[in-house]
Amino acid sequence: MAFNIHPRTIFTWLVAAALTIAVVTMLKRQENVKAVPPQKPIVDNAWVAPEINTDTSLAPETKNLLLYGQQLIAHTAKYFGPKGVVGHTSNGMNCQNCHLDAGSKSWGNNFGAVAANYPRFNPRAGNVQTIYCRINDCFQRSLNGKPVDTSTREMQAMFAYIQWLGRAVAPKTKPVGSGVEKIAFINRAASPDSGRLVYEAKCAVCHGQNGGGLLHPNGLEYTYPPLWGPDSYNTGAGLYRLSGFAGFIKNNMPYLQATHALPVLSTSQAWDVAAFVNSQPRPAYDQHSDWKDIKRKPFDFPFGPYADSFSQQQHKYGPFKALAAVKK
Questions:
Q1: Which among 35, 96, 252, 267 is least buried, having the fewest CB atoms inside 10 angstroms?
Q2: Model-level pTM?
Q3: What residues have CB less than 8 Å from 176, skipping those under 6 apart?
Q4: What is the C-alpha separation between 316 and 311, in angstroms, rounded?
Q5: What domain count does the chain have?
Q6: Average per-residue pLDDT in the chain?
């Protein structure tokens, strides 16, 4: 029996068959792909800074003072740097280079717990320190400069701003996310050599291959601060100790990329790059008056003498677990 089938009909059948084969193949492929479960967001119950411009309780003169204090923290070099309009008392870095977002960023070495815990005894100084003392410590160490007269409007503005930031924090408490996080120890010494590789891959694009930072076009302050060299923090600064610096790096660097919930660097990379940066040359600070009671020295204080038998090298780079255990 002969079938007289029109060529157009045959073409239609072929197209339909091809489509059927394609659909079946796609379905089989989908069966072999494992479903990816949705990622659960990490809940971060960290301290959140208040906003000056939304605080309706502020009198106009108080608000202006707080805004000025905020500006002084954010753009310190414009006022106190080598070309400062108020004085030439610092190295050209800004307070917010170490205290991110003018001291308001969670996990960014913020001021959240300062007002609640000062005045307090400072074992490094061996006496009770006020917020004024703490500010001037930063000027002398992190900004490698000179103290600011506490009677000036500038000091009063910074003092008022720091107090206002922590006004809702209960006395003698430290909310989650305030200051810097002390991250987990690693089971070896932090390695400056390994840290150099991390720095070159992740940090040099902003801070420069020579660590000298990137000067702002206005010539008054740094867009990205120097991490070593004559214009960086000196050896008396808090970030010269690795435990704080490593936590600061892990939660915040690379800048505007890393967060506490989603860090870019691993824990070991954070320790290593902190070790590399702090192994580089920087101004020396006269610490002969610090830590009169050497038993109180932190486990990662990089200068002797010590009350234990561990070496200065281990106090600087670790491993720190045994050192920290002795301090407990």
A1: 35
A2: 0.85
A3: 45, 46, 47
A4: 9
A5: 2
A6: 90
